[in-house]
Amino acid sequence: MGQAAAQTGWSARMLRYLETNGLVVPRRADSGYRLYAERELGQLRTLRDLRERFGVELDELAFANRLRREPELKAAVETWLAASGPAADWVDWEQRKHERLLVA
Amino acid sequence: MGQAAAQTGWSARMLRYLETNGLVVPRRADSGYRLYAERELGQLRTLRDLRERFGVELDELAFANRLRREPELKAAVETWLAASGPAADWVDWEQRKHERLLVA
DNA sequence: CGAACCTTGCCATGGATGTGGTAAGGTTCC
DNA sequence: GGAACCTTACCACATCCATGGCAAGGTTCG
Prior knowledge:
The structure is a homodimer of 104-residue chains. The first copy, chain A, is mainly α and 104 residues long. In chain A, 69% of the residues lie in helices and 4% in strands. Chain A has helices at residues 2-6, 12-20, 38-54, 58-69, 71-83, 88-103, and strands at residues 27-28, 34-35. A two-stranded antiparallel ribbon of chain A has the order 1-2. The longest helix of chain A is centred in the middle third of the chain and has 17 residues, at 38-54. At the A-B interface, α3, α4, α5 and α6 of A face α3, α4, α5 and α6 of B. Chain A binds a DNA duplex (30 and 30 nucleotides) through α2.
């Protein structure tokens, strides 16, 4: 039941959203009701953590996944990171993101 | 001059945008004009490539950077990826992204 | 001087994301 | 049967990103 799932800190609405994006996909009862087992509950908590503590967005997770399975991409990104400066500038980007989150 | 830089496929507008985000930061002449050296031109081409071939967005690059310098984050993400299913669902996400790009 | 660049703003847009709401309708269980 | 759940399918919204455009003003150079 989504109600027990909502006890992980997500709204029922969000659970459906996460499912449509393939992030946390629960089994279904014959009636169509979603059944969240421990596995999914764990995923939900992990995901919540990732967002709260690091401000990770869904597309960023998808990207992390790509990095693992697309060596070409990974290489290109590494090249880029190596070539770009002292990375001090990146802090700005991250800081702004964190500020946004702190407001919320 | 931005004109030579625009020959890397970016509009002058975008060059300023990239600069404000710390992605490609050219030196400045005394007059304030931007001076793109080979270094920056290379970065611009690499960046262009990343976007064309892989649809990488700027925030995703920032994220890749974070992964390298925040071990905690990296660990959390790894945990997540390991715990989430066969990753077949992620394909959807990526496919949609690719579709978007192909249209453009 | 004047043309052709450049500079920094600021406003505007299209599309995506993350959320919430609501409506119309099944399921569970007392 | 009726309350309290659940389901899908929309509509809506604020925010952000990536771009473009325009205005007002410096710089370079013939």
